[in-house]
Amino acid sequence: MGGTTLCQDNVVIPVVRPFRGVSAEERRDLRRKQLLDGCLEVAGTAGMAATTIDAVSRQAGLSKRYFYESFRTRDELFVALAQRLLAEISSGVLDSMTDSATELIDRARMGIGRVITVLTDDPRKARLFTELIGSELLKDTVGGAEHELAELLTQLLLAGTGSDQSQYHRLRLATLVIVAGTAKAVTSWLDGKLTVSRDDLIEEVAQMSVAAAHTVRSDL
User: Fold this and answer.
1) Alpha-carbon gap, residue 187 to 201, rounded angstroms
2) Which helix (H) or strand (E) holds 5?
3) Dihedral of alpha carbons 142, 124, 29, 50, sign
4) What contacts 41, CB < 8 A, 6 or more positions away?
5) For residues 109 and 100, what is the distance between their CA atoms, to the nearest angstrom?
6) What is the pLDDT of residues 59-112, one digit of tens each?
7) Which segments within 45-121 are labelled E, that is strand?
């Protein structure tokens, strides 16, 4: 699998050979992904409290030895999974900011629509995101799931408007409430407690977001 070679200065340099065409680094990356996927399955169906290292390793089809190869603790795994989910959610909002000339309601529909689509296409992600809302777990890493998304929604609504700091912070408060409420609404919708279509759900959240922006900037 591996070996050493001697250079002209008598320094031993390890030689890492791939196993069946896959390098050791690629195998580690694959195992890490398996663990993240396993954590999503367990946490997204049974909840974070029921997500043990044993359960995740078993779901991933790996021994605990490989868990500790990628993560020191269960919380470190949760943080990595949360960061992956937030990156997926955020990319849709960021894409909606590319054209600041677009009408405000259209930007809101596009950005919020992409977020809700990610969460409702995979209910495990919605349930995980809802559990992460308000969690202290991410406070020192990504600032809290709801704060991360509220920040992006505020930027989306005020893109290209030249708003001042006071207006920004006032809207930031409103978007924090909207994000937390939307997470709850999505899980209620998935559980059949809200009898509206997904398009209607997106439209209502978009309209609420625009209304919040108008309380800060009536000229938008």
Assistant:
1) 12
2) strand 2-6
3) positive
4) 59, 124
5) 14
6) 999 999 999 999 999 999 999 999 999 899 888 787 777 655 578 899 899 999
7) none
User: In the CATH scheme, what is the code of domain 1-71?
Assistant: 1.10.10.60
pTM of the entire predicted model:
0.80
To which residue do tokens 């169906």 refer?
45
Q: Give per-residue pLDDT as tens, 13-50.
A: 554 455 566 688 888 999 999 999 999 999 999 999 89
What digits encode the pLDDT tens for the residues 178-202?
Answer: 999 999 999 999 999 999 999 999 9
Identity of the amino acid at 27: R
CATH of domain 74-216: 1.10.357.10
Residue 16 has a pLDDT of 47
Where exactly are the structural domains of the chain? 1-71, 74-216
CB 38 within 8 A of CB 63: no
The C-alpha atoms of residue 86 and residue 105 are separated, in whole angstroms, by 23
Q: How far apart are CA 122 and CA 27, in angstroms?
A: 26
